């Protein structure tokens, strides 16, 4: 497993980061530990969780993912694990989280303390804002609608609160998630003007069916030295080809169809079928090709891979170090011209 520096931080992370959102819903604690053991054995040192997980979010399970990771982390050398978690933002209807989550200083303090307690650690390496406090189009929405603007916690207040966590040693680095070009620039501007910690990473969706990051964020993140932590690199498993072969295959899309509405859009199935065809024609596993494509992009700091079974995780981790041929990359570009980003 290749290890690389993460942007401007002192962190050295594996090219693949283990995503954990199935822990506590599709996976038991024992199954979660088995995945963590396998990933750690294969050279993965980077783990991504969130206070909101598992998904789909429910009051009965909220925080269970961090608890499962925490019980595993308790028997690991803490300094060998790069641990990232996220604080939940507002306006998703998750009123069981702090009575209605916001990114206010008081609420972020509550969130961090809860995460540290469940994770059984006194610090996290990367603390991320799961999504903005202000309105932005997210999770399958494409267009900005000014009529949906709402009152939001000022960004400076958010950064000042996060800076306090860094000073206390409870957080090493800060990150954003599901953020826009303006949001990244504004957070960085405010941090620079007020002498506060900069945002070190951006965790956004990026995969063969959604390369929107390349339109504006790629330049922003290049110039500001903010690497992408790419999530959903397999587009909820669609790019593995399993739903093409078996439409009723077990997975998040079949178990929780409402949670995957962003993939029920025109041209998603057609584009996915073409990418799977390219992989199989080249003698590649479709999931590994999709993962290798993401991991090979120069703006990607780490690719977040998840699975609900050890077999799936074995397949996914087998993409480590893969380099796609020019011919395969050229075919991928031709498909994108026909079906540009059907699943934003």
Concise overview:
The protein is of the alpha/beta class. It is 37% helix and 14% strand. Strands 3-4-5-6-7-8-9-10 form an eight-stranded parallel beta barrel, surrounded by five helices. Strands 1-2 form a two-stranded antiparallel sheet.
Keywords:
single chain; alpha/beta; eight-stranded parallel β-barrel; two-stranded antiparallel ribbon; 12 helices; 37% helix
Descriptive report:
This protein is α/β, with parallel strands linked by helices and 344 residues long. It has twelve helices and ten strands. It has helices spanning 29-41, 64-73, 105-119, 155-167, 181-194, 217-224, 242-245, 252-255, 268-281, 286-295, 310-317, 326-338; strands at residues 3-5, 12-14, 16-19, 46-48, 82-87, 124-129, 171-177, 199-205, 228-231, 300-305. The strands form two sheets. It has an eight-stranded parallel β-barrel with strand order 3-4-5-6-7-8-9-10, surrounded by five helices. A two-stranded antiparallel ribbon has the order 1-2. Strand 3 (16-19), helix 1 and strand 4 (46-48) form a beta-alpha-beta unit. Helix 9 packs across helix 10. The longest helix is centred in the N-terminal third of the chain and has 15 residues, at 105-119. The mean pLDDT is 96.
């Amino acid at each position: 497993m290749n290890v690389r520096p993460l942007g401007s931080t002192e962190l050295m992370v594996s090219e693949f980061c283990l995503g954990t959102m199935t822990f506590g819903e599709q996976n038991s604690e024992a199954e979660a530990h088995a995945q963590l053991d396998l990933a750690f054995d294969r050279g993965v040192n980077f783990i991504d969780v969130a206070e909101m997980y598992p998904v789909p979010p429910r009051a009965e399970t909220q925080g269970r993912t961090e608890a499962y990771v925490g019980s595993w982390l308790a028997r690991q050398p803490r300094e060998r694990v790069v641990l990232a978690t996220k604080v939940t933002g507002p306006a998703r209807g998750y009123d069981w989280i702090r009575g209605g989550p916001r990114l206010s200083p008081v609420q972020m303090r509550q969130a961090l303390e809860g995460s540290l307690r469940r994770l059984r650690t006194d610090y996290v390496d990367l603390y991320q804002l799961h999504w903005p406090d202000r309105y932005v189009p997210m999770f399958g929405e494409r267009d900005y609608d000014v009529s949906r603007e709402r009152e939001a916690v000022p960004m400076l207040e958010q950064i000042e609160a996060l800076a306090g966590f860094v000073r206390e040693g409870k957080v090493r680095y800060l990150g954003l998630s599901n953020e826009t070009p303006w949001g990244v620039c504004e957070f960085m501007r405010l941090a620079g003007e007020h002498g506060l910690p900069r945002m070190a990473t951006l965790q956004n969706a990026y995969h063969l069916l959604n390369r929107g990051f390349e339109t504006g964020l790629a330049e922003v993140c290049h110039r500001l030295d903010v690497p992408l932590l790419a999530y959903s690199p397999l587009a909820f498993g669609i790019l593995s080809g399993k739903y093409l072969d078996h439409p009723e295959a077990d997975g998040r899309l079949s178990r929780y169809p409402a949670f995957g509405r962003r993939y029920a859009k025109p041209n998603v199935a057609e584009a996915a079928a073409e990418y799977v065809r390219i992989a199989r024609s080249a003698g590649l596993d479709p999931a590994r090709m999709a993962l290798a494509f993401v991991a090979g992009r120069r703006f990607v700091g780490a690719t977040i891979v998840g699975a609900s079974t050890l077999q799936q995780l074995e397949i996914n981790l087998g993409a480590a170090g893969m380099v796609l041929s020019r011919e395969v990359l050229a075919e991928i570009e031709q498909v994108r011209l026909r079906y540009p980003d059907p699943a934003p």
